[in-house]
């Protein structure tokens, strides 16, 4: 598929009872010339896909009363369309650690609440938490740089209060997160030659937040003292690979193309970080 192609949108987690043929307006969503089916109560162009092969499906499961469902079998690969419907969050997290594209299809394609015009509330809360985690790792790196320059316990070459240092690094972390999102949006706009791609900012932000689960491991830096400088770089590599997997699923492109997109956005992030760091040291300190 072409780079940065539009990924399929999704429908809600509704019961597939009383299925009806879609109108001709939705024939662009069909694969192999066959028409996908949706619940009659919600005739919409949005669809869900099989997490194994990406083939569109009418629904993920059939509901037979409260708490009784039967998973839909994909007509293309004969696997369950979305097995994660019955899995708990622990299994989902483990498969995210294993970088399985199926789990990202479940989260980014088959969850309607994650594909709205704005970031879903719980995802936004997770994003704020990840920024706070990132404050610690940035602080760790700045202190390491100070030690290498012979400036113990100094930030920007000067002594500051805890609150001042925290707010300064918090601002830098927020700028870094925004720059990473901007880089991916810019890559999408350049390839598609359309500023309409900017409207996908919420979906891309959701993909970046969800695939940034590796930052949760930063809590280990708080529980145990990791003075090795390579530990944060290992986390960066984990974030790079998970971002690449998520972008690959979201834009329906090969993971190598997705890696190039992530490298491009990371380069923009580092450039913005460099200027923001120097501006902060001049203006505030």
Kindly describe this structure:
Helices cover 50% and strands 6% of the residues. The chain has 285 residues and is mainly α. It has a two-stranded antiparallel sheet with strand order 1-2. It has a two-stranded antiparallel ribbon with strand order 3-4. A two-stranded antiparallel sheet has the order 5-6. A hairpin with a 6-residue loop joins β3 and β4 (56-57). The longest helix is centred in the middle third of the chain and has 31 residues, at 162-192. The radius of gyration is 22 Å and the shape is globular. The model is unreliable at 1-45 (pLDDT under 50).
Q: Uncertain spans, ≥5 residues at pLDDT below 50?
A: 1-45
C-alpha termini separation: 49 Å
Residue-averaged pLDDT: 76
Radius of gyration computed on alpha carbons: 22 Å
Return the string of H and E elements. Answer: EEEEEEHHHHHHHH
Number of alpha- plus pi-helical segments: 8
Q: How much of the sequence is in beta strands?
A: 5-15%
Strand order of the biggest β-sheet: 1-2
